Each structure stands twice: as C-alpha cells, then as structure tokens.
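Request: Show me your protein:
***
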Amino acid sequence: VAGLGNYGLWGTRHSVGMAVLDRLARQLAAAESWWADGRCCADVALATARGLQLVLLKPRRLMNLNGLSVASAAEIYSLGPADIYLVHDDLDKALGKVVVKLGGSARGHNGVRSCISALQSNEMTRLRVGIGRP
C-alpha cells in the first residue's frame, strides 16, 4: 500500500495519501515501526491485516517521482502491479469522498503517472481520496 505525496510537505492536500497511511499504520498497531529504507528511498512499515502481510510505503521523493520508490519496493518484496494499492489525492472528488478504482489511466495525476511508468503497468488498484478544487 503506497501513500503518494510530496515527502516532507505534511498536512498539504496533495500529501493526503501519506496521511492515510499514517492512520492505517496506527489502526494496525504499526505506527512505531516505520523505518527509512534506502533501497527504495521510502519510509516502510510492515503490518498484518486479516491474515495478510502488508508493506506500507511512503516514498521519500517528490510526487512526480513516487513511482521509482514504488517500483523498487515491488522488486524488493516480490510484488506485481496487481498486488499494489496506490492511495492518492483526487482534485475531481469532493473533500473526503473516497473511491476505489481498479487500474486504468493516471487521469492527470503525476504520482500515478510515475507509478504506471516505473512499473510499466496500469493494473494497480487506486484509493482516490477527494480533496476538491481550491
């Protein structure tokens, strides 16, 4: 599960993917287990949910390069594109509205575009979190 955003710009609308991962880590009792993994240039935490082993990932790169971290982590943890969930902001959704999307295009989102390019696939499931238009 990769929370897309601009690392270090906490609390901004475009880093809502990382905020969702922080909340998920707290709910899965993994909030204290984040570590900086230089192999994929990301903060990583491992968690278990309903018998599934999860790799939580917050790329330490700018949004338009998030895919490099996601692809590196996929290789390290032997994950295919269909195993990956991307959590990201969506300007076209009302604030707080959440939609799950299976595969497809990036729809103008630079972080998703970067992931599609780096993984050479658009099969990733997306959790689109509405941030509305300014």
